[in-house]
Amino acid sequence: MNTREGGAGGVGNYLLHRAKPHLPPWLGMAGVGLAGVLGHDRWGASPGAAVGLTLTSVALSGGAWVMGKAASKQRRLHSAITTAAGSAWLTAACLAGPMAGPVDDAYLMGGSALALSWNVRIFMRTSDTSDGTGGADGGLMEKIGLARAQIRAARAEPNRVTAPVALDPGTQTNADMAGALGRIASALDLPASAVRYQPDADSNRRGDLVIVPEDMLAQTVEWEGPSNLGGSIVDPLVIGRYDDGTPMMMWLPGDPDPEVNRNSTHVLIAGGTGSGKGDAALNLQTEILSRRDVVLLMSDPKAFQDFRPLLPGYDWAAEGGAPTEVMVTAVQAAIPARTAWLGAHGYRQWVPEAAREQRDPKRSCRPDGRACGCPGMPFMVAWFEEAANTLRFIGDDAFTGIAQEARSAGAALVVSLQRPSYDQMSTSTRASLPSVVALGCAPDDEGFSLPDEVLAAGAHPGTWRNRKPGYCYVVSPGIDEDRYACPGRTWRFTPRAVDAMQLLALWAQRHGATADPVTARALTSVAGTAYTGRRAPDTAVPSATQARVDDDLDVDDEDLMVDPEDEGIDEEAELPAPQPGDDVPLFGQETGRKPSPEESRRLFAQALDEFEAAGQMVVGPVDFKDWCDRHGLSRPWVSDRLKEAYLEGRLKETGKTGRWRIVPRPDDGTPAALTAA
Known about the structure:
Blueprint: H1 2-19, H2 23-43, H3 47-67, H4 73-96, H5 103-126, H6 140-143, E1 150-151, E2 155-157, E3 160-166, H7 174-179, H8 181-188, E4 195-199, E5 206-211, E6 237-242, E7 247-250, E8 267-270, H9 277-289, E9 294-299, E10 316-318, H10 322-344, E11 379-384, H11 387-394, H12 400-405, E12 411-417, H13 427-431, E13 435-439, H14 446-449, H15 452-456, E14 471-475, E15 488-490, H16 498-511, H17 517-527, H18 544-553, H19 597-613, E16 618-619, H20 625-631, H21 635-648, E17 651-653, E18 660-662, H22 672-676
Parallel strand pairs: 8-12, 8-13, 9-10, 9-11, 11-12
Antiparallel strand pairs: 1-3, 2-3, 3-5, 4-5, 6-7, 6-15, 13-14, 14-15, 16-18, 17-18
Helix pairs in contact: 2-4, 2-5, 3-4, 4-5, 10-17
């Protein structure tokens, strides 16, 4: 019996709960009827009351129409009709009596019809075609032109609201919702970047509307040091925070674990002048240099203006122009060598175990299956800052080979430039850079930085331009796709960070990885002495730019008064006898002094050796001007010798007309032609 009573009570409670939303219209009808009975008893014989009730009826009807101005047209009209009908019946009931003539019939039929019309309206607004849950948009969907779309119960998190959206089947799509984000931001009085939409991958009419009401990125947060000093490069690189306060992270190597299944990636850093591109680069570089199993090759045409404190930590630093051209060619040569090493040791892609000494027989390159003990191969990052200069110097496809092949070789390419348009970078290279850190830019450049689907989801770096330095969107493997359209901000680097950056570079010198023999040999085969590798602090060789700075500061050094070309000259030695043709002008003449063929080969070979020893691995006729002055030789003679050296294999073509790359001489005396082959 108790069970039956409990069941009956449960059914009654359920029915009452379902009926509650539909009771107000009927309660209103009953209230109007009671008011008619009481009003007739008081004012039935009063002419003044008739005038007052009539004016009140008109005022209520007009007030309902005016007050409904903010509502939809249908709701406004419905409210006005209901108010007019109710006030007209109340006036008639008070004056003639609620039971007089047709007044009672009008009450029963008209009042019931109006109450039922409101029940139908409530039912249509709160019901759903799939699960019957109520809407929660407060009329927002009607305002933005998607009246039949439904917003479910929202999920609130700190500074983030996520509301599932179901669009009207057959008439609305996710593209309609993406196009309405600007109107939603306007309705909520929020910036455009605070509203985004994440479509459901399995449906074209469902997704999540994400609203971030407060901009938590407005406060600048300074860089406080690397997030994981001594960790592995496979661990996340923390470069800032999202607008809800969560860390903004990236990964460069892939992860073959089936639960992760992340691909290796290359990175594009894009942003206009003043957008904070330098700070974004510093965040990523300090994270890379703080890891134990990675080497970083760095090219910067601006002479490392922003990155000078980190110089000692780079495995190879090159300025723009010819040194960067050599670096590009050297990295291209290192990729197949690294791929062959990984394949010989059974690695389908680079993993942290590849950076350690190979003691596992399963990772042996020996034919007998025993452990080979080969030195490990660290991950390699080739970074090209201000890459627009490099692309103009070498060509728009300078990085194409690296971008297409480096991921399988345990290497990542990072390209940083202001405007990654297709007239600067080849479409093949751009397509091979799947990751992007997109900072503020011109509105017309958004499509060059971010994929169309991310822009459709609400990402708009063009709204920032250079007014919000450090604000960015990050698209990269390993990041949840619903984060792609979430704005973040990188840590800020101030002068107070210089000391910590210098200490980090010193740590990288002492404890970071050095290039493995395979990679070092491949780089040296192209760059010769231009590639020195990362050295310990006591043997570190400063760059040419740093050496010039040190010389400028060391004013007490007497050697500064001697031209480097005059060092070692015996002041007492007799001058050489004049040679035929010494007085003939070098330029504007077809010939100068004509040495013998044997002397020509010896002199030119000596010149190439001098360039190679100085680390200048790309040469052309203009580089031989001073050398020709010293030896009294003509420009046509140099051009002929360059062609001969190319045929002999001592020089190789570059991507620029009139420029030749020197093929380094091997230490074992092997002819250069064999090395080139």
